[in-house]
Write a structure and sequence with these properties.
384 residues, alpha/beta, Glutaredoxin, elongated
């Protein structure tokens, strides 16, 4: 089939290859550069380069952003390569998106940093742009007196992308300090929930499980300041039935390799060693541990389906929604399990995980571990 080649078709082809697609690529690169967290890297790429090949997430994200700026530079300044580059980039986007959907990543494509966009929407836009670029061929660029400046301009744009991305990501592997007042229960919006002491370790009036902050005072809900910096202090006073411990120093990021956790003792698990307290009986008998997020729909569905009245002792471990803190309390979902004690992982680093992460322990040994366990077909609820 012959492609349209009239003046209008050529103008449409020019607009797509030289303006619209570069802006589309820039929108994704710019958002990733602004949020500068590899937490939103596509799962397929993260698993391949970080988990399998051992690459560092920060430089990996910086490299991807730099390559996107390189593609933008080519499409903007090198006319004869603009259309092939547009086709190549859109094809790559579609392949990555298709793989993410194959892996069950339907919540967000990760294309725009922390801004969540339905993968189906992004897939439709990418596909429409690709069809347009292939269907409408721009006219061959005529010789231009400014042509000698095209290559230097492309190089400057590319260098800017790499320098900016690596400059912002160079210290990503380091934990950040986040000093907090140990007498308050701060969340990311800076609000302080009301104090409702329950010295007997029971359930507060609002039904939320008790937490212990660093001054040893029980308060309902909220997040503890045990992650205020790369070195965390031990809990001064553990709640009844818990033991206080000195947490390990923070790194810049953590990710879950649940396949390697089977047979590991709870005490030796990297994420567990970041906590400043845990139940005194967690190494005795059968226990469930669920790492969750207060804003995770699947986590709360999981707890609602299976833990409204589960006889097996269960510890919930709250994961901060971002490197600087937990989400504001008005974004938290209602906690279904009112009898499950909650401890918080420290803020100050990125947790690149898919929640919920469900562990089954038997005498302190992990016998089952599943990242992103499905509430409708759980794999790790193995205890009767």
């Amino acid at each position: 089939m012959a492609l349209p080649s009239g003046p209008l078709a050529q103008k449409i082809g020019f607009a797509l290859s030289r303006i619209i697609v570069p802006l589309w690529v820039f929108s994704g690169a710019g958002m990733k550069l602004y949020y500068k967290t590899p937490r939103n890297l596509p799962k397929g790429l993260f698993d391949l380069f970080v988990k399998d090949l051992g690459a560092s997430p920060g430089p990996l994200l910086a490299t991807i952003i730099g390559l996107e700026f390189f593609a933008i530079a080519v499409m903007l300044f090198i006319g004869r390569l603009a259309r092939p580059m547009a086709i190549f980039m859109l094809s790559c986007f579609l392949l990555v998106l298709a793989n993410e959907m194959r892996l069950g990543q339907f919540e967000s494509c990760g294309c725009f940093g922390d801004i969540k966009v339905d993968p189906w929407i992004t897939l439709g836009i990418d596909l429409a742009l690709l069809v347009g670029v292939v269907f409408f061929r721009p006219s061959r660029p005529a010789p231009d007196a400014r042509a000698p400046l095209a290559l230097p301009a492309a190089i400057v744009c590319t260098v800017f992308g790499f320098v900016a991305s690596f400059g912002l990501m160079w210290n990503y592997s380091k934990a950040i300090d986040r000093p907090t007042d140990p007498g308050t229960d701060l969340v990311d919006d800076g609000t302080e929930p009301p104090v409702d002491p329950t010295p007997d370790g029971g359930t507060p009036d609002d039904g939320s499980p008790v937490r212990i902050v660093d001054d040893g005072t029980p308060k309902p809900g909220g997040t503890t300041p045990d992650g205020a910096g790369a070195t965390q202090p031990p809990a001064k006073t553990a709640r009844p039935g818990f033991v206080a411990r000195t947490p390990d120093p923070l790194k810049g990021f953590y990710f879950a390799e649940t396949d390697t956790w089977i047979g590991t003792r709870w005490d030796d698990l990297t994420l567990a060693r970041l906590l400043n307290e845990w139940p005194a009986d967690i190494n005795t008998g059968r226990y469930y541990v669920i790492f969750f997020s207060h804003t995770c729909d699947h986590c709360h569905e999981y707890l609602e389906y299976w833990f409204l009245d589960n006889p097996t002792p269960t510890l919930l471990v709250a994961i901060p929604e971002n490197k600087t803190g937990f989400a504001p309390r008005n974004q938290w979902l209602t906690m279904p399990c009112r009898t499950c004690p909650i401890v918080d992982l420290p803020v100050g680093c990125d947790y690149i995980v898919t929640t919920p992460i469900v562990l089954a322990l038997e005498d302190g040994v992990i016998t089952c571990a599943k990242e992103g366990d499905d509430p409708e077909a759980p794999e790790c609820l193995i205890f009767e």
